What does this fold into?
Amino acid sequence: METLIKTSQRLVNTVQMQTFRYLYNQINWNDRLIMIKGARGVGKTTMLRQHIKEVFGPSGSALYASCDNLWFSSNKIVDLADWHYNHGGTHLYLDEIHRYKGNWQQELKNIYDSYPDYHVAFTGSSIIHLDSALADLSRRCLPYTLYGLSFREYLAFEGIADIKPLSLEEILDSTHQEEWTILNTLPEKVLALFGRYIGKGYFPFYTPENVQEYYGRIERLLDTTINRDIPDLENVEYETLHKLSRLLYVMSTETPFTLNVQSLSKKIEVSRNTIIKMFELLDKGAIVRCLYSGWKSPKSVAKPGKVLFNNTDILAALSTMNEIGTVRETFVASMIAPKHKLTEPPAGDFLVDEKYLLEVGGPSKSFKQIANIPDSFVVADDEETGFGNRIPMWLFGFLY
It folds into this structure.
């Protein structure tokens, strides 16, 4: 126990307090049971430690512990909470709950019910779902999801500009009022700044001075997600895990990648149903993003209509042969998905909230493919400004 406490104090004391993620001030830290989900590397751990340092300091009222600590190999979460509570503790912060080998759902429920004035916040993989299987916990738990850096947040982290997030309606506004406000605020040309961000600034550990080192770390995160996080929460055979990595390689080297389940089945040497299951696992792990075609027949619902990488930095880390159209769609989807529902439409690239139709392309992209469709917009890359229903792509980076 003493080692666990000293580790907590050391990690909290050394955490940086210069930059905070967008979610930090959106969390109601006073709630008694808080869950923060997200992909590896997006900053969940740092956020927990920052909150402890800012609010509690060295008082001992708050305790941080990672659930992959060896202490938990022979001890339970509920035992830690009981000891901490009896020694004056009020707040417990558990990191990587999915690494815990016991029944963490039941133990957290017991802590919540047995210690009415005790608070627990915990982080977990994107794979965790508070669905009907966790009904008892989900009624008690307030869940949040942390995503990678948006373009807006990247500018704040770089000390370039601190600009408020925009709603989707503000971005799609035909007057382009918010767009011009941002352009007049930035000290540099927006396209130059956007070029420094896309593919190189999604994860908060980005290193502008050594991009290859940054990509290497992303590859290690993907490997950990596939070989540790997914097996912890899903019943997956070793051979399937190996082929998940092979599937990512195929996706990253085909330019552009087009979803053909039958062809992939042959290349990966698995059945069609296994390919679909593999995409589901990679989507849960925030490695790829599966878009479904809700307008199609029920028989095709299980098969995604389109599969993209979760963000442009994963795409860039896995391959240098990135097709520009895929990069554009990947960026737009990664910025919209945190707050809105995305599906694959019969025409155009994305249907947002079953209302707004988006066609993504370069400066020469026209309205031809979505002509005469209400609430349709062209999202144009390499354009500083837009007009009417033509929206510059970089502006979607201000959604959160």
